Amino acid sequence: MSEVTFAKSFLATLDKKPIKLPADHVSDPRKYPAQSPYTLPRPTHPFPRKTVPAATQEAKQKTVTATLKPMRGGETVTLADLTLQSTIHDIKTQYAQQSSQPQDKIKLLLNKKPAADLKTLQELGVAGETVELSVMIMGAGAATPTAATTPAVEKSEPVAPSTAEPPAVDKMDVDEKTPAPSSEKAQAEAEAKPEAQANTAHQILASEEFWTDLKGFLSQRLRDDQEAGTLVQVFREAHAKQ
Which InterPro entries does UniProt cross-reference here (predicted)? Predict the structure, then answer.
């Protein structure tokens, strides 16, 4: 007798018995008829085991080659031996190791849409053996000028003392003749720096890459491409009116 048959027969027996007991009735267990314990039969089929879906096994075995191209120009990095279960965080880690870029500044885009770090390639809809990702480095425009100007200052400072120290006459000549030119040169450099910075900022704001990066950043933060495009258009029109 199976469990379902036993349950049906038990419920049918209960239904046949008339209910004529008051609400506060308490039955006496000493009057219960003697019954032998019932042992459920052993199931003929064992319990099913959890099996890993075939699609998941194929995703773990299938290798994917990812090509990472920087949006502002630079060296293209190719990562092989990836799987469909590889996350965007894993890809960013490998890219940071090969390109020497800070990992927290790297943003990856798939089909011009930001990809979350915890998403796998399979969850993002990648089915082939190759995938192309765009790389956006946040804050790269501000870091480039400082890196270029720092070595020049370090090289120019140690050279000046070596030429001025040996002859004593040169020191007197430098003290008498150079104060005015050096001050004028320093003043010209000080006046030229804001203009250069203004020109650089104007060129960045006039480029299409800046607005594309801004739209990608807003899309990732707001998770809404349409709203991000609207905000970028508003910012661009406000900047054009200045």
Answer: Get5_C, Get5_N, Ubiquitin-like_dom, Ubiquitin-like_domsf
Question: DSSP 3-state assignment of 8?
Answer: helix
Tell me, what's the pLDDT at 87?
Answer: 92
Task: Give the domains, in start order, of the chain with CATH numbers.
Answer: 57-138 (3.10.20.90), 145-241 (1.10.286.70)
Q: How far apart are the first and last CA of the chain?
A: 88
Q: For residues 99 and 74, what is the distance between their CA atoms, to the nearest angstrom?
A: 10
How much is the pLDDT for 52?
Answer: 60
If you write DSSP's letter for every residue of 78-133 in order, what string do you get?
EEEEEETT-BHHHHHHHHHHHHT--GGGEEEEETTEE--TT-BTTTTT--SSEEEE
CA 205/CA 211 separation, integer angstroms? 8
Q: pLDDT tens-digit profile of 38-58?
A: 888 887 776 666 666 666 666
**pLDDT < 50 regions, the chain:** 141-164, 166-176, 178-180
pTM for the full predicted model = 0.37
Based on C-alpha coordinates, what's the Rg of the chain?
38
Task: Match 């720096």 to its residue by tokens.
Answer: 193
pLDDT digit string, tens, across residues 146-163: 333 344 434 444 444 444
Among 68, 76, 142, 138, smallest CA distance to 109 is for 68
The residues with which 64 forms a beta bridge, in sequence order, are 82
Residues across the chain: 242
